[in-house]
């Protein structure tokens, strides 16, 4: 069975279908990647636009286990980025 790569991962289809996708990294020490690396990879290999990357980041904050007061400044900043 082939390994999962972004070329054959369903992230693009799921996002386009309206599934609330988030990005993260499981273990940056073991795998040598960062969340920034993950965003760059989906932009390059799966064709995510700047606005779609902002949506992914926004999704992460929307589902985060933080109070609304803690989320608000981050969501406000993302709203500004999405309008660039």
Summarize this entry quickly.
The chain is an all-alpha fold.
List the helices and strands and how they pair.
Blueprint: H1 11-16, H2 28-31, H3 35-46, H4 50-63, H5 68-82
Characterise the protein shown here.
With 84 residues, this protein is an all-alpha fold. The chain has one domain (11-82). Helices cover 61% and strands 0% of the residues. It contains five helices and no strands. The radius of gyration is 14 Å and the shape is globular. The model has no long low-confidence stretch (mean pLDDT 88).
Q: Given the C-alpha coordinates, what overall shape results?
A: globular
In what range is the share of β-strand residues?
A: under 5%
Number of domains: 1
Q: SSE string, helix = H, strand = E?
A: HHHHH
Determine the structural class based on helices, strands and strand pairing: mainly alpha
The total beta strand count reads 0
- Compute the average pLDDT: 88
As residue ranges, the low-confidence spans are none
Q: Enumerate how many helices there are, as a single number.
A: 5
Characterize the largest beta sheet: strand count, sense, and whether it forms a barrel: none
Instruction: Tell me the radius of gyration.
Output: 14 Å
Distance between the termini: 42 Å
- Percentage of residues assigned to helices: 55-70%
